[in-house]
Protein backbone atom coordinates (compact mmCIF):
# COMPACT_ATOMS: atom_id res chain seq x y z
CA UNK A 1 0.00 0.00 0.00
CA UNK A 2 1.31 3.41 -0.93
CA UNK A 3 1.32 6.00 1.83
CA UNK A 4 1.92 9.74 1.83
CA UNK A 5 4.57 10.99 4.17
CA UNK A 6 4.64 14.56 5.24
CA UNK A 7 6.96 16.25 7.69
CA UNK A 8 6.38 19.70 9.01
CA UNK A 9 8.86 21.54 11.17
CA UNK A 10 7.97 24.67 13.10
CA UNK A 11 9.42 26.66 15.92
CA UNK A 12 6.70 26.81 18.51
CA UNK A 13 5.69 27.37 22.09
CA UNK A 14 6.22 24.36 24.34
CA UNK A 15 3.20 22.18 25.17
CA UNK A 16 0.88 23.54 22.49
CA UNK A 17 -1.89 21.01 21.96
CA UNK A 18 -1.67 19.10 18.69
CA UNK A 19 -4.09 20.24 16.01
CA UNK A 20 -5.91 17.88 13.71
CA UNK A 21 -8.10 20.27 11.78
CA UNK A 22 -8.24 18.21 8.62
CA UNK A 23 -11.84 17.51 7.51
CA UNK A 24 -10.71 14.15 6.12
CA UNK A 25 -9.82 12.92 9.61
CA UNK A 26 -12.85 11.32 11.27
CA UNK A 27 -11.19 10.51 14.58
CA UNK A 28 -7.82 10.02 16.24
CA UNK A 29 -6.74 8.25 19.36
CA UNK A 30 -3.40 8.47 21.07
CA UNK A 31 -1.28 5.35 21.07
CA UNK A 32 0.38 5.17 24.46
CA UNK A 33 2.88 2.60 23.25
CA UNK A 34 4.39 5.12 20.83
CA UNK A 35 4.22 8.24 23.02
CA UNK A 36 6.27 9.63 25.90
CA UNK A 37 6.41 12.78 27.99
CA UNK A 38 7.92 13.86 31.32
CA UNK A 39 8.65 12.18 33.68
CA UNK A 40 9.41 9.52 30.99
CA UNK A 41 10.01 6.69 33.47
CA UNK A 42 7.82 4.80 35.93
CA UNK A 43 8.57 3.88 39.53
CA UNK A 44 10.97 1.21 38.36
CA UNK A 45 12.98 3.91 36.50
CA UNK A 46 12.02 2.18 33.27
CA UNK A 47 9.52 3.02 30.59
CA UNK A 48 7.06 0.25 29.75
CA UNK A 49 6.87 1.17 26.07
CA UNK A 50 10.32 2.49 25.22
CA UNK A 51 13.86 1.35 25.85
CA UNK A 52 16.90 3.60 25.74
CA UNK A 53 20.59 2.81 25.57
CA UNK A 54 24.07 3.81 24.47
CA UNK A 55 24.88 7.27 25.83
CA UNK A 56 21.20 8.24 26.21
CA UNK A 57 19.91 9.23 29.63
CA UNK A 58 16.75 10.70 31.16
CA UNK A 59 16.26 13.93 33.06
CA UNK A 60 12.83 13.10 34.46
CA UNK A 61 11.50 16.66 34.44
CA UNK A 62 12.91 17.95 31.19
CA UNK A 63 14.20 15.67 28.44
CA UNK A 64 15.60 12.42 27.14
CA UNK A 65 19.15 13.30 26.08
CA UNK A 66 20.41 11.09 23.27
CA UNK A 67 23.89 12.63 23.30
CA UNK A 68 25.78 15.14 25.38
CA UNK A 69 27.65 18.03 23.75
CA UNK A 70 30.88 16.02 23.67
CA UNK A 71 32.69 14.05 20.98
CA UNK A 72 32.00 10.47 19.89
CA UNK A 73 28.64 9.93 21.59
CA UNK A 74 25.87 7.62 20.39
CA UNK A 75 22.46 7.18 22.03
CA UNK A 76 19.17 5.52 21.16
CA UNK A 77 15.51 5.22 22.13
CA UNK A 78 13.29 2.56 20.53
CA UNK A 79 9.68 1.47 20.90
CA UNK A 80 9.19 -1.99 22.39
CA UNK A 81 6.12 -2.55 20.23
CA UNK A 82 6.00 -2.61 16.42
CA UNK A 83 3.51 -0.26 14.75
CA UNK A 84 0.54 -2.22 13.44
CA UNK A 85 -1.62 0.68 12.27
CA UNK A 86 -1.35 1.75 8.65
CA UNK A 87 -2.61 5.33 9.15
CA UNK A 88 -0.97 7.31 11.92
CA UNK A 89 0.56 10.65 12.84
CA UNK A 90 3.55 11.20 15.08
CA UNK A 91 4.47 14.53 16.62
CA UNK A 92 7.63 15.15 18.59
CA UNK A 93 9.46 18.08 20.11
CA UNK A 94 13.22 18.28 20.29
CA UNK A 95 16.11 20.62 21.04
CA UNK A 96 19.58 20.58 19.53
CA UNK A 97 22.06 22.80 21.34
CA UNK A 98 25.80 23.28 21.10
CA UNK A 99 28.40 25.60 22.58
CA UNK A 100 31.17 25.29 20.00
CA UNK A 101 31.18 27.02 16.62
CA UNK A 102 30.15 23.80 14.86
CA UNK A 103 27.49 21.24 15.71
CA UNK A 104 27.07 17.62 14.69
CA UNK A 105 26.26 15.11 13.63
CA UNK A 106 22.49 15.20 14.16
CA UNK A 107 19.72 12.79 15.03
CA UNK A 108 17.33 10.46 13.24
CA UNK A 109 13.73 9.34 13.52
CA UNK A 110 13.20 5.76 12.38
CA UNK A 111 10.41 3.41 11.29
CA UNK A 112 12.42 0.25 10.70
CA UNK A 113 12.34 -3.52 10.76
CA UNK A 114 15.22 -3.78 13.22
CA UNK A 115 16.02 -1.77 16.33
CA UNK A 116 18.65 -1.17 19.01
CA UNK A 117 21.61 -1.81 16.69
CA UNK A 118 24.18 0.96 16.94
CA UNK A 119 26.06 2.08 13.83
CA UNK A 120 27.25 4.96 11.64
CA UNK A 121 23.90 6.46 10.56
CA UNK A 122 23.22 9.02 13.31
CA UNK A 123 24.00 6.34 15.86
CA UNK A 124 22.09 3.50 14.17
CA UNK A 125 23.00 0.71 11.77
CA UNK A 126 23.57 1.25 8.05
CA UNK A 127 21.82 -0.86 5.37
CA UNK A 128 18.60 -0.61 7.32
CA UNK A 129 15.14 -1.67 6.14
CA UNK A 130 12.51 1.04 6.48
CA UNK A 131 12.23 4.78 6.79
CA UNK A 132 14.92 7.08 8.18
CA UNK A 133 14.40 10.81 8.64
CA UNK A 134 17.67 12.58 9.34
CA UNK A 135 18.04 15.90 11.12
CA UNK A 136 21.57 16.52 9.86
CA UNK A 137 23.48 19.41 11.45
CA UNK A 138 26.91 18.91 9.87
CA UNK A 139 27.85 19.02 6.18
CA UNK A 140 30.29 16.13 5.65
CA UNK A 141 30.39 16.66 1.88
CA UNK A 142 30.39 19.70 -0.38
CA UNK A 143 27.51 21.88 0.78
CA UNK A 144 24.55 21.77 -1.63
CA UNK A 145 22.10 23.50 0.68
CA UNK A 146 22.14 25.28 4.00
CA UNK A 147 22.37 23.33 7.24
CA UNK A 148 20.73 21.96 9.35
CA UNK A 149 19.11 19.81 6.67
CA UNK A 150 16.19 17.40 7.17
CA UNK A 151 15.88 14.52 4.69
CA UNK A 152 14.18 11.16 4.21
CA UNK A 153 15.62 7.88 3.01
CA UNK A 154 13.84 4.59 2.42
CA UNK A 155 16.26 1.75 3.16
CA UNK A 156 15.97 -1.59 1.36
CA UNK A 157 18.42 -3.46 3.59
CA UNK A 158 21.24 -3.21 1.01
CA UNK A 159 21.70 0.46 0.12
CA UNK A 160 24.13 2.45 2.25
CA UNK A 161 23.28 5.91 3.60
CA UNK A 162 26.86 7.00 2.88
CA UNK A 163 27.50 9.30 5.81
CA UNK A 164 30.53 10.95 4.13
CA UNK A 165 28.26 12.31 1.39
CA UNK A 166 25.31 13.15 3.68
CA UNK A 167 23.08 10.65 1.89
CA UNK A 168 22.87 12.89 -1.20
CA UNK A 169 22.36 9.99 -3.60
CA UNK A 170 19.54 8.39 -1.59
CA UNK A 171 17.51 11.45 -0.62
CA UNK A 172 13.78 11.18 -1.34
CA UNK A 173 12.89 14.64 -0.09
CA UNK A 174 14.18 17.26 2.29
CA UNK A 175 14.38 20.86 3.43
CA UNK A 176 16.68 23.23 5.28
CA UNK A 177 15.47 24.32 8.70
CA UNK A 178 17.44 25.94 11.49
CA UNK A 179 16.52 24.13 14.69
CA UNK A 180 19.86 24.64 16.48
CA UNK A 181 20.20 26.70 19.65
CA UNK A 182 16.56 27.81 19.54
CA UNK A 183 15.02 29.09 22.77
CA UNK A 184 11.89 26.93 22.34
CA UNK A 185 11.80 23.31 21.24
CA UNK A 186 11.16 22.56 17.57
CA UNK A 187 8.17 20.41 16.74
CA UNK A 188 8.02 17.91 13.89
CA UNK A 189 4.98 16.05 12.60
CA UNK A 190 5.11 13.07 10.33
CA UNK A 191 1.86 11.86 8.78
CA UNK A 192 1.48 8.38 7.36
CA UNK A 193 -1.99 8.87 6.04
CA UNK A 194 -3.66 10.41 3.00
CA UNK A 195 -4.77 13.73 4.42
CA UNK A 196 -4.12 17.13 2.91
CA UNK A 197 -1.33 19.47 3.96
CA UNK A 198 -1.84 21.07 7.38
CA UNK A 199 -2.08 24.82 7.04
CA UNK A 200 -0.28 25.91 10.22
CA UNK A 201 2.88 24.04 9.40
CA UNK A 202 5.83 24.49 7.09
CA UNK A 203 5.89 21.56 4.74
CA UNK A 204 9.33 19.99 4.58
CA UNK A 205 8.61 17.26 2.05
CA UNK A 206 5.91 14.96 0.80
CA UNK A 207 6.77 11.63 -0.76
CA UNK A 208 4.95 8.45 -1.61
CA UNK A 209 6.41 5.27 -0.20
CA UNK A 210 5.38 1.88 1.02
CA UNK A 211 6.15 1.28 4.70
CA UNK A 212 5.46 -2.27 5.89
CA UNK A 213 3.48 -2.82 9.06
CA UNK A 214 5.07 -3.98 12.31
CA UNK A 215 8.19 -1.83 12.09
CA UNK A 216 9.61 -0.17 15.19
CA UNK A 217 9.72 3.56 15.92
CA UNK A 218 12.97 4.96 17.21
CA UNK A 219 15.23 7.95 17.73
CA UNK A 220 19.02 7.87 17.63
CA UNK A 221 21.72 10.52 17.64
CA UNK A 222 25.48 10.67 17.32
CA UNK A 223 28.35 13.10 17.67
CA UNK A 224 31.76 12.79 16.04
CA UNK A 225 34.55 15.36 15.90
CA UNK A 226 31.88 18.03 16.44
CA UNK A 227 29.02 17.68 18.89
CA UNK A 228 25.62 18.83 20.16
CA UNK A 229 23.15 17.99 22.87
CA UNK A 230 20.32 16.10 21.15
CA UNK A 231 17.25 16.23 23.41
CA UNK A 232 13.74 14.79 22.95
CA UNK A 233 11.01 16.55 24.94
CA UNK A 234 7.92 14.52 24.09
CA UNK A 235 6.42 12.28 21.42
CA UNK A 236 2.74 11.75 20.77
CA UNK A 237 1.52 9.22 18.23
CA UNK A 238 -2.07 8.95 17.04
CA UNK A 239 -3.88 6.27 15.08
CA UNK A 240 -6.03 7.99 12.48
CA UNK A 241 -9.43 6.98 11.15
CA UNK A 242 -10.28 8.79 7.94
CA UNK A 243 -13.76 10.04 7.04
CA UNK A 244 -14.47 7.67 4.16
CA UNK A 245 -11.95 4.86 4.18
CA UNK A 246 -11.19 4.70 7.91
CA UNK A 247 -12.81 1.36 8.67
CA UNK A 248 -11.27 -0.09 5.53
CA UNK A 249 -7.81 1.08 6.67
CA UNK A 250 -8.34 -0.45 10.09
CA UNK A 251 -9.31 -3.80 8.60
CA UNK A 252 -6.38 -3.77 6.19
CA UNK A 253 -4.08 -3.02 9.09
CA UNK A 254 -5.28 -5.98 11.14
CA UNK A 255 -5.43 -8.35 8.16
CA UNK A 256 -1.86 -7.45 7.19
CA UNK A 257 -0.78 -7.90 10.79
CA UNK A 258 -1.90 -11.51 10.67
CA UNK A 259 -0.11 -11.87 7.32
CA UNK A 260 3.08 -10.75 9.03
CA UNK A 261 2.50 -13.25 11.83
CA UNK A 262 2.21 -10.52 14.42
CA UNK A 263 1.39 -12.27 17.66
CA UNK A 264 -0.78 -9.98 19.74
CA UNK A 265 -1.06 -12.48 22.60
CA UNK A 266 2.38 -12.55 24.14
CA UNK A 267 5.26 -11.52 21.88
CA UNK A 268 4.78 -7.81 22.46
CA UNK A 269 2.86 -5.65 24.84
CA UNK A 270 -0.21 -4.63 22.92
CA UNK A 271 -0.77 -0.88 23.24
CA UNK A 272 -3.96 0.27 24.94
CA UNK A 273 -6.46 2.12 22.77
CA UNK A 274 -9.57 3.99 23.73
CA UNK A 275 -11.69 2.95 20.76
CA UNK A 276 -13.53 -0.30 20.15
CA UNK A 277 -11.61 -2.34 17.64
CA UNK A 278 -14.49 -3.92 15.68
CA UNK A 279 -13.34 -7.53 15.99
CA UNK A 280 -16.41 -8.91 14.24
CA UNK A 281 -15.68 -6.69 11.21
CA UNK A 282 -12.11 -8.02 11.06
CA UNK A 283 -13.35 -11.61 11.32
CA UNK A 284 -15.88 -10.95 8.56
CA UNK A 285 -13.08 -9.54 6.36
CA UNK A 286 -10.90 -12.62 6.97
CA UNK A 287 -13.87 -14.93 6.27
CA UNK A 288 -14.53 -13.11 2.98
CA UNK A 289 -10.87 -13.54 1.96
CA UNK A 290 -10.99 -17.24 2.85
CA UNK A 291 -14.24 -17.69 0.90
CA UNK A 292 -12.66 -15.94 -2.10
CA UNK A 293 -9.58 -18.20 -1.92
CA UNK A 294 -11.72 -21.36 -1.58
CA UNK A 295 -13.92 -20.24 -4.51
CA UNK A 296 -10.87 -19.57 -6.69
CA UNK A 297 -9.22 -22.92 -5.85
CA UNK A 298 -12.53 -24.64 -6.64
CA UNK A 299 -12.69 -22.83 -9.97
CA UNK A 300 -9.12 -23.86 -10.90
CA UNK A 301 -9.79 -27.52 -10.03
CA UNK A 302 -13.02 -27.42 -12.06
CA UNK A 303 -11.30 -25.84 -15.09
CA UNK A 304 -8.37 -28.30 -14.94
CA UNK A 305 -10.72 -31.27 -14.84
CA UNK A 306 -12.70 -29.79 -17.77
CA UNK A 307 -9.49 -29.37 -19.80
CA UNK A 308 -8.45 -32.96 -19.03
CA UNK A 309 -11.84 -34.33 -20.06
CA UNK A 310 -11.73 -32.24 -23.26
CA UNK A 311 -8.34 -33.77 -24.11
CA UNK A 312 -9.63 -37.24 -23.31
CA UNK A 313 -12.57 -37.00 -25.68
CA1 LIG B 1 26.11 15.15 7.84
Automatic annotation (TrEMBL):
Question: Compositionally biased, Polar residues: which spans?
Answer: 252-269
- Give start and end of each L-type lectin-like domain: 28-240
- Give the residue spans that cross the bilayer: 284-302
Q: Which residues form the signal peptide?
A: none
From the UniProt entry, list the residue stretches annotated as the region Disordered: 249-274
Query: What Gene3D superfamilies does the record point to?
Result: 2.60.120.200
InterPro entries named among the record's database cross-references:
ConA-like_dom_sf, Intracellular_Lectin-GPT, Lectin_leg
**What Gene Ontology molecular function terms does this protein carry?**
D-mannose binding
Q: What keyword terms does UniProt attach to this protein?
A: Membrane, Signal, Transmembrane, Transmembrane helix
Keyword Membrane included in the entry's annotation: yes
- Keyword Transmembrane attributed: yes
Biological process according to GO: endoplasmic reticulum to Golgi vesicle-mediated transport
Instruction: Please give the name of this protein.
Output: L-type lectin-like domain-containing protein
What is the taxonomic lineage of the source species?
Eukaryota, Fungi, Fungi incertae sedis, Chytridiomycota, Chytridiomycota incertae sedis
Amino acid sequence: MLIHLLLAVVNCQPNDAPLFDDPLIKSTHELQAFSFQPPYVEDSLRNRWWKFGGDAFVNVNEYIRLTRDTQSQSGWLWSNTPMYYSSWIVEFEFKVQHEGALSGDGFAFWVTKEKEIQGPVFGSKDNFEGLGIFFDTYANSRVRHSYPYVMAMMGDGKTSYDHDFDGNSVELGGCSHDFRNQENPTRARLELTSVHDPSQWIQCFKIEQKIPLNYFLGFTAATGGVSSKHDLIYTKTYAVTLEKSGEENRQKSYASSSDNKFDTSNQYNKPPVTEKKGTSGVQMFIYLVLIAIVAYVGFVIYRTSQQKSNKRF
